[in-house]
Write a sequence for this structure.
């Protein structure tokens, strides 16, 4: 599984006595994974609600960019994980989101028809 931080890169930087600044939201277990190596110490903190919501938006963009670059299915799983966290912040469930998706698909359609809108000519 791909992590938000390349742990091997972290170890390499630590071995060279370097400190790498990330300042980004990571999965809950990443600091523990980094700290299992005696040569690495991760510094992290818990975000407040406003910071967390902002960082989730940045994480979503990061994960979407990673998916677009790789088209790797694991990146879609990362996007889904971020979406679950965003829903939790908003006090909503994945079921509620899926209901919204279904309602929108019923009223406007989905994307399965592969319809590509080229242009619209104004009619007077």
């Amino acid at each position: 599984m791909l992590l938000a931080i390349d742990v091997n890169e972290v170890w390499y930087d630590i071995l060279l006595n370097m400190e790498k600044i990330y300042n980004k939201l990571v999965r809950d277990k990443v600091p523990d994974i980094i700290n299992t190596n005696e040569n690495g110490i991760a510094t992290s903190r818990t975000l407040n609600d406003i910071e967390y919501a902002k960082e989730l938006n940045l994480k979503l963009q990061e994960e979407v960019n990673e998916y677009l670059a790789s088209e790797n299915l694991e990146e879609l799983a990362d996007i889904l994980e971020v979406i679950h966290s965003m829903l939790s912040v908003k006090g909503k469930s994945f079921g509620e989101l899926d209901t919204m998706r279904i309602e929108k698909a019923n009223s406007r359609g989905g994307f399965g028809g592969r319809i590509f809108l080229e242009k619209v000519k104004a009619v007077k």
Q: What stands out?
A: Residues 7-95 form one domain. The chain has a mean pLDDT of 90. The first helix runs from residue 7 to 15. The CA atoms of residues 9 and 20 lie 10 Å apart.
